[in-house]
């Protein structure tokens, strides 16, 4: 096998963006063996970002976000069947229909699913939705078309905020319930969270922060919701946007380092086993993977980002068909975007890996700015609001660990050159997960060494 | 044919929105929205838009796994 990395059997579990891009890259790198893609959804790979934007706005139907493919994959597709296990000794993937698929090398790209509403009886009420898959988007869009009287969005992370934005654009009444102090605060911290809160209210969202939904009410059909502050609302649609759950349960018996935080792998996408020993034939990529990043002190990162799925899949594929010395690391700077309430929000680096933030260009007042995040005196992230062209510059500052706060650029005036605390909340306090999970220590917390008494 | 735009790369130059306005459109000042399925008769325009994109963020191709349905 080692002598013939371009031959043999490669199985990819997860037929979404990461799985597709890995398959394309394998062929591009000359892999001529058998290639199988296994996916639990019946559809071929589709793009998810449009689901909470174009699809909810009614521009495009949910079935129309299929991803284009580069070249002929010559792959076997096993769609609509779930992988339920891996036999690491016999090297077989076990499928829910009883079939077994043998492999020489395996790529795990099973991604995440929407975190469900914790009360199953309430979650089963007609009118309660999550939004992660094409099918979920189709059902939610149909319900929005029917003109509900009020939509409740539970959780104001990126997905929840995009849903609220689409509903307002359609003229629907929207209540957003967020456990944290502001929308987007888990991903972007306090300064931009406060801006997001102001924008949502300016667009007519009934935004309620610092509250949780204690009950969804209804008898078969959703009729309303109760909040932890004792208030209640009438609503006929509720969208649960409480972050994502990593699809790792199927790996429980595999002996791999797989758990609720993802599948741990090295920078070359090789999965670790449960003893922390790196495997040489099992790889991981995309939302399900958790890997050390040197720019963020080698803390393990889980990134739910479109660009990460693409980049990590390409690195994994390269490393699956190349011998050790030719293998490459996945070290790209994390990046993502969101579009909501008429604004284009883009991020590079890891904003939650910060202790301070400064508005380096533009102003909060104009909702056109670049916020730069620092950790212990170096730049670790930047977020632009309607100012995307500036981000590339800050990406270089992050890559080179440039000093924070950054020197004033030649751009426009600075509203407030003084850094303020980034107010990155403890993820435990949020009802939704941030899109980047740092699974080591929280960078804005100081460690205290406790000396035991003699 | 299908299209996908890498919106990390996209910097809102809007060349695509000028060249193929039925497929690419700006939403607000700099957010790009697009129709992932290229309508009949728009393919040539979309190909031109992909070629003209200053940051090469547009990928056009056959729908992935279409034969697997």
From TrEMBL, chain A:
Residues 336-407 form the Reductase C-terminal domain. It comes from Streptomyces tubercidicus. The gene is hcaD_4. GO terms for cellular component: cytoplasm. SUPFAM superfamilies: FAD/NAD(P)-binding domain (SSF51905), FAD/NAD-linked reductases, dimerisation (C-terminal) domain (SSF55424). Pfam families: Pyr_redox_2, Reductase_C. Residues 9-313 form the FAD/NAD(P)-binding domain. It comes from the Bacteria. The keyword Oxidoreductase applies. Keywords: FAD, Flavoprotein, Oxidoreductase. Its cofactor is FAD. This is Pyridine nucleotide-disulfide oxidoreductase. The keyword Oxidoreductase applies.
Automatic annotation (TrEMBL), chain B:
SUPFAM superfamilies: 4Fe-4S ferredoxins. Keywords: 3Fe-4S, Electron transport, Iron, Iron-sulfur, Metal-binding, Transport. It comes from Streptomyces tubercidicus. Its cofactor is [3Fe-4S] cluster. InterPro entries: 3Fe4S_ferredoxin, Fe-S_cluster_ET. This is Ferredoxin. It comes from the Bacteria. One of its GO terms (molecular function) is electron transfer activity. Ferredoxins are iron-sulfur proteins that transfer electrons in a wide variety of metabolic reactions. Pfam families: Fer4_15 (PF13459).
């Amino acid at each position: 096998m080692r002598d013939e990395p371009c031959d043999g059997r490669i199985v990819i579990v997860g037929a979404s963006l990461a799985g597709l891009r890995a398959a394309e890259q394998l062929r591009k790198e000359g892999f001529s063996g058998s290639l199988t893609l296994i996916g639990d959804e019946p559809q071929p790979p589709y793009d998810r970002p449009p689901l909470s934007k174009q699809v909810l706005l009614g521009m495009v139907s949910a079935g129309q976000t299929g991803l284009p493919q580069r070249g002929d994959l010559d792959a076997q597709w096993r769609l609509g069947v779930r992988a339920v296990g891996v036999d690491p000794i016999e090297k077989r993937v076990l499928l829910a229909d009883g079939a077994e698929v043998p492999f020489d090398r395996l790529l795990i790209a099973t991604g995440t699913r929407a975190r469900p509403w914790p009360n199953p009886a309430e979650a089963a009420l007609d009118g309660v939705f999550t939004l992660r898959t094409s099918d979920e988007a189709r059902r939610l869009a149909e319900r929005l078309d029917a003109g509900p009287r009020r939509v409740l969005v539970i959780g104001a992370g990126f997905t929840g905020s995009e849903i609220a934005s689409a509903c307002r654009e359609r003229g629907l009444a929207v209540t957003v319930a967020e456990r944290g102090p502001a929308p987007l605060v888990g991903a972007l911290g306090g300064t931009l969270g406060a801006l997001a809160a102001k924008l949502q209210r300016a667009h007519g969202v009934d935004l309620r922060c610092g509250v949780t939904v204690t009950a969804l009410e209804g008898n078969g059909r959703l009729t309303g919701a109760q909040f932890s502050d004792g208030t209640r609302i009438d609503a006929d649609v509720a969208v649960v946007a409480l972050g994502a759950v990593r699809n790792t349960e199927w790996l429980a018996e595999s002996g791999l380092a797989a758990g609720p935080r993802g599948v741990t792998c090295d920078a070359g996408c090789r999965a670790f086993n449960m003893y922390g020993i790196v495997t040489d034939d099992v790889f991981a990529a995309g939302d399900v993977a958790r890997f050390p990043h040197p720019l963020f002190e080698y803390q393990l990162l889980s990134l739910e980002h479109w660009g990460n799925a693409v980049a990590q899949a390409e690195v994994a594929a390269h490393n699956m068909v190349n011998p050790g010395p030719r293998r490459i690391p996945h070290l790209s700077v994390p990046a993502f975007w969101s579009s909501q309430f008429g604004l284009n929000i883009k991020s590079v680096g890891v904003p939650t890996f910060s202790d301070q933030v400064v508005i380096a260009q533009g102003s909060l007042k104009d909702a056109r700015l670049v916020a730069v995040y620092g950790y212990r005196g170096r730049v670790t992230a930047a977020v632009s609001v309607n100012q995307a062209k500036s981000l590339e510059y800050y990406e270089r500052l992050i890559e080179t660990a440039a000093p924070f706060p950054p020197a004033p650029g030649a751009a426009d005036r600075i509203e407030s050159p003084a850094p303020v605390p980034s107010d990155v909340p403890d993820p435990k306090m949020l009802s939704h997960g941030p899109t980047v999970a740092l699974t080591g220590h929280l960078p804005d917390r100081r460690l205290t060494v406790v000396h035991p008494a003699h | 044919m299908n299209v996908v735009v890498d919106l990390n790369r996209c910097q809102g130059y809007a060349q695509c929105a000028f060249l193929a306005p039925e497929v690419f459109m700006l939403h607000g000042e700099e957010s790009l929205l697009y129709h992932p399925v290229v309508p009949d008769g728009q393919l040539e325009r979309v190909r031109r838009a992909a070629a003209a994109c200053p940051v090469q963020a547009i990928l056009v191709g056959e729908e992935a796994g279409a034969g697997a349905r």
